[in-house]
Write a structure and sequence with these properties.
With 763 residues, this protein is mainly β. It contains two helices and 44 strands. The relative contact order is 0.11.
Length: 763
């Protein structure tokens, strides 16, 4: 046995010995809680729901509403930060009542000095981190892995999402990856349910009332229900987070295996059929054609609960004109950039259809349906999705979508099919399989124009601290028979003070998931990270010290030549008010196999490049009305030098006005030439109410040579439907300056008016 093998065995033994530490801590926090309350046999708190005949008025006034009188409040919150394990600095009470249709939550957040309440935003799904807020999570299947999150703040904002695999998603990407997380990231904020909330501020603090129809969530068949549940409260003035079911500081609300239980719910049979039609009018003025084109269209989505745990979604003439445009990105490398899915239809149960490494390798990537490679829309004729739980924690998903041909027949129509099954087990574990298929259809389809992916994946938990996950996928493309696979396996160990994680992966040269995503292929990789967390006792106002190191190495799949090596040594310091300073050293080594053009007229030659970078990042208290942050990276870059500057200014006026001004500037000098890139962004939001807003996003990208403007007015009804007026303007620098260059087809102006409404047929 060599030294490496012995080290691995010793490490695994140590991990096994420490696996129950988090559970033990949570149990001790409960045992030491001065508040008497009912506990489960495993020592976690129990909340009981009370059936009522008279439902709450839902005006936010909990204390003066007799509908809550018979309910016993849940209380006894414990801090996770800043003083982990200590009682919350302010009292919180949560009441739970229900009738045949709806479950209600009454929240009372006491505040000794109500003038210290911070409310930073009132937009739907706006972040609850920089505001006083309350969140709850419902594990309706009691599988201790998946759930629904609902949250609000003193302005009554609607915040909701879906949790998969306790928020850890389908796997890990490379340590230090800067890609945006996809649907496999474990928390899907873009899921929108039908529910209501109202809140108010008073002399005792603030209160809120939440009404969640049973038809909005999914749960097992049968009247008697026991759900997993936990509550989180934020007190932003103290930068405090506290939980009803106490959590060790390395975990957050998504840690459903440490949640309490909600008992006493007798749910009658639910009939659920929702129809969401839309009407759309659009005017288009393209630079390539001076005339204005007016279009009208309509479509509809239908949602039907086959069983309380199984949902059928159907869509006809699917359109997403109301969705905010993508944030621009600048690519200074030779690999694909990732843009997250934002379209509502593809977001429900998106975590179920996720296999791979978020933002790195995704076997199914829904943006391949209805969006071309250049970001333009491809008409979606329609489709359907069947997803849910069939009992014994077996989850299934089936999706089929049909697109139309585009560009006057230059591209055929396509049919997309995804089939998924996942079996959940105890202790945060599951195994699953998935098939993804694309087939060209219609008279324009060529023979054997198809692509398929076959994948298996798994996740295994050991105690609360150790997790092992992995996947393997094989793609099928006509005419390609070898080197078509990819796989990855990873582990993570999370304790109060340390996090250790690592993994290995490989993507063969001919790996080709046409309905998936990958940043690069033809490599073998290994990565790892070590992170420590220390909380000094009142030293210079410092809340936490977070030194960490990450590393990954990428080797050519066939030759073993090193293509990328990256090491990141970081020391992060966070103060009590949330401001943070990070200083880091990045060590990079790039082996360029084939030369590539990094900028117009500037090429990077094949060869090996070894360089280092210094990095510093600082941001102020983000809960303040005015905050700012800046990141500077300076050092070697493909045989030359680069200075990257990323300043950002954030402004808010109460919960109604929010603005963000940001710049990403790169000044690059290489042996093949020099260039500068600038990516500017201005985002402004004004909320008239929690359901009426005006948003503007203006972006300047000199790398793509364009200005883009996106202005959206929204008057929302349920589940993010309603009236939307959207103006888009894309102007390229050379529109009228250089007659020798073709004007991109996307240049021009579009004004869209869209109205949609949810009709609850059985209610």
């Amino acid at each position: 046995m060599n030294g490496l093998s012995r080290s691995i065995i010793i490490f695994c033994v140590a991990v096994v010995w420490l696996t129950d530490s988090a559970v033990g801590l949570a149990q001790s926090l409960i045992d030491n809680n001065v508040v008497e309350r009912e506990l489960t046999t495993t020592g976690f708190p129990v909340a009981r729901a009370t059936r009522v005949e008279r439902i709450p008025t839902l005006d936010g006034d909990v204390l003066n509403d007799s509908a809550w009188a018979d309910a016993t409040p849940g209380t006894g919150f414990r801090q996770n930060t800043p003083d982990d394990g200590q009682p919350a600095s302010e009292r919180t009470e949560v009441f739970v009542v229900y009738n045949d249709d709806t479950i209600f939550f009454g929240i009372v957040c006491y505040v000794s000095d109500p003038s210290t309440i911070i409310v930073s935003d009132s937009r739907r799904d706006s972040s609850l981190q920089e505001t006083d807020s309350f969140q709850l999570i419902l594990d309706t299947y009691l599988d201790k892995q998946n759930g629904f999150v609902f949250g609000t703040n003193p302005a009554g904002v609607e915040y909701d999402g879906q949790v998969t695999n306790e928020g850890q998603g389908s796997g890990r990407g490379f340590a230090g990856s800067q890609q945006q997380g996809g649907s496999g990231g474990g928390f899907n904020l873009n899921w929108d349910g039908v529910w209501q909330v109202n809140a108010r501020i008073s002399e005792i603090g603030w209160t809120a009332e939440i009404a969640i129809p049973f038809r909005t969530i999914r749960f097992p068949s049968g009247e008697a229900q026991t759900w997993g549940i936990n509550f989180q409260r934020n007190i932003r003035a103290r930068n405090e987070q506290s939980y009803w079911a106490p959590l060790p500081r390395q975990f957050n609300l998504n840690r459903l295996s440490l949640a309490g239980e909600l008992q006493g719910i007798d749910v009658p049979a639910q009939r659920n059929l929702k129809l969401t039609p839309y009407l759309l009018g659009k005017t288009i003025q393209r630079k390539t054609d001076t005339k204005t084109t007016a279009l009208g269209d309509f479509g509809a989505d239908l949602k039907y609960s086959v069983t309380p745990s199984m949902t059928l979604d159907l869509s006809y003439n699917t359109d997403f004109a109301q969705v905010e445009v993508d944030d621009q990105q600048i690519n200074l490398d030779r690999f694909n950039l990732f843009f997250p899915e934002k379209r509502p239809f593809f977001l429900e149960n998106a975590g179920l259809f996720s296999v791979g490494q978020p933002g790195q390798i995704e076997v199914f990537f829904s943006r391949r349906i209805g969006i071309s490679g250049n970001g333009s829309q491809i008409p979606i004729l329609g489709g359907g999705r069947l997803s849910g739980n069939v009992g014994n924690n077996t989850n299934i998903g089936f999706l089929n979508m049909q697109t139309e041909s585009v560009s006057a027949g230059a591209s055929p129509s396509n049919n997309f099919t995804v089939a998924r099954v996942r079996q959940d087990f105890a202790n945060r574990s599951n195994v699953g399989a998935m098939i993804v298929n694309r087939s060209a259809t219609g008279g324009l389809a060529a023979e054997k124009d198809y692509n398929r992916s076959y994948a298996v994946d798994g996740r295994f938990g050991l105690g609360q601290t150790f997790t092992l996950s992995g996947f393997a996928v094989e793609t099928e493309t006509p005419g390609v028979t070898t080197d078509t696979h990819a796989y990855a396996t990873s582990f993570s160990y999370d304790s109060e003070h340390y996090r250790v994680a690592g993994g290995v992966s490989a993507v063969a040269p001919n790996f080709n998931p046409e309905v998936g995503f990958y940043t690069r292929r033809g490599y073998r990789g290994v990565d790892g990270t070590v992170r420590a967390k220390f909380r000094p006792d009142n030293s210079w106002g410092i809340h936490e010290l977070n030194p960490h190191a990450t590393h990954y190495t990428i080797l050519n799949f066939d030759t073993g030549q090193q293509e990328t090596q990256y090491s990141h040594l970081d020391s992060t310091m966070e103060w009590q008010n949330g401001s943070r300073l990070s200083t880091a050293l990045n060590l990079r080594k790039e082996g360029v196999v084939e030369p590539f053009e990094i900028a117009s007229g500037v090429n990077v030659a094949a060869g090996t490049y070894d360089h280092s970078e210094a990095q510093i990042r600082y941001y102020t208290n983000r809960g303040a009305p005015l905050s700012w942050e800046v990141q500077v990276v300076s050092g070697g870059f493909f045989g030359g030098d680069r200075v990257q500057l990323r300043p950002q200014l954030n402004m808010r006026v109460g919960e109604t006005f929010n603005a963000e001004v940001a710049l990403d500037r790169n000044d690059v000098t290489l042996p093949g030439g020099s260039f500068v890139t600038n990516l500017g962004r201005v985002r402004v939001n004004y909320s008239f109410t929690t359901r009426m807003f005006l948003q503007a996003l203006v972006q300047y990208n000199d790398r793509s040579e364009l200005w883009s403007s996106n202005i959206r007015f929204g008057l929302l009804s349920d589940a993010n439907t309603g009236l939307f007026i959207v103006y888009n303007d894309i102007k390229f620098f050379h529109d009228n300056l250089d007659p020798r260059r073709a004007i991109p087809t996307g240049a021009g102006r579009t004004l869209t008016l869209k109205y949609s409404q949810v009709f609850d047929v059985f209610h």
